[in-house]
Specification:
There is one protein chain. By secondary structure, the protein is α+β, with helices and mostly antiparallel strands. The protein has one domain: CAP (Pathogenesis-related Protein p14a), CATH 3.40.33.10. The protein has a four-stranded mixed sheet with strand order 1-3-4-2, covered by helices on one side. A hairpin with a 3-residue loop joins strand 3 and strand 4.
C-alpha cells in the first residue's frame, strides 16, 4: 500500500512526488510544500487496512451509486463514509475520521495518493495520510457508467487510548 511506503520512508518518496509534474492530470499544483515537509519528518507508524472501514466505504459507494444511477459527476454527493463507519462500530470513543471521495480518476492508485497529498499541502499544509495519529484506512473503488469510477477512502485516527 503506497500509504505505508509514504509513511515508512517519507524522504524516499520525494522523486515520485516530483515526477507528477509529468502526469497528464498535473495542473500546476505547488509540490515544494509537500517536499519540504517530507524532508523534515521521521518515519511514521504503518497503518492497517481495516475491514470495517473498507466495508463502510463499499456500503456507502453502493448506496450512492444506486441512488445516483443517472447522476453526473457534478451532482454526485460526496461524503457519508464517516457516518457509515460510526454506525458499524457504535459510539467510536477515542477515534476521529476524515474521508476523501474522488470521482472519475483514471490514473493509478499511487498517483492518486500523491495528488491528494500535494493538494492537501497546497491548502492546509497537511494531510491525513501523514498524520501520526492515523492508524487505519478503508478504501472502496468502483466503476460507474457515467462517473467512470468512484474512489473513496476513510482515514481512522486514534485520538485517545479508549479505542472501541
Amino acid at each position: 500500500m503506497v500509504i505505508n511506503l509514504m509513511r515508512s520512508d517519507p524522504k524516499s518518496m520525494i522523486p515520485q512526488i516530483r515526477s507528477i509534474k509529468q502526469h497528464k492530470f498535473y495542473k500546476g499544483q505547488p509540490i515544494q510544500p509537500l517536499v519540504d515537509y517530507l524532508n523534515s519528518i521521521e518515519p511514521l507508524p504503518l497503518v492497517t487496512l481495516d475491514e470495517h472501514a473498507c466495508q463502510a466505504c463499499r456500503n456507502n459507494t453502493d448506496r450512492k451509486m444506486k441512488t445516483d444511477e443517472d447522476t453526473g459527476k457534478d451532482h454526485f454527493e460526496k461524503g457519508g463514509n464517516q457516518e457509515e463507519f460510526q454506525g458499524m462500530i457504535g459510539n467510536g470513543k477515542g477515534i476521529e475520521t476524515t474521508e476523501c471521495t474522488q470521482i472519475g480518476w483514471n490514473g493509478s492508485a499511487q498517483d492518486l495518493i500523491f495528488f491528494l497529498l500535494v493538494d492537501g499541502f497546497k491548502d492546509q499544509k497537511s494531510h491525513a495520510i501523514l498524520d501520526p495519529k492515523l492508524i487505519k484506512v478503508g478504501i472502496s473503488f468502483k466503476a460507474h457508467k457515467k462517473l467512470h469510477n468512484v474512489f473513496q477512502i476513510l482515514y481512522v485516527k486514534q485520538i485517545s487510548n479508549n479505542m472501541n
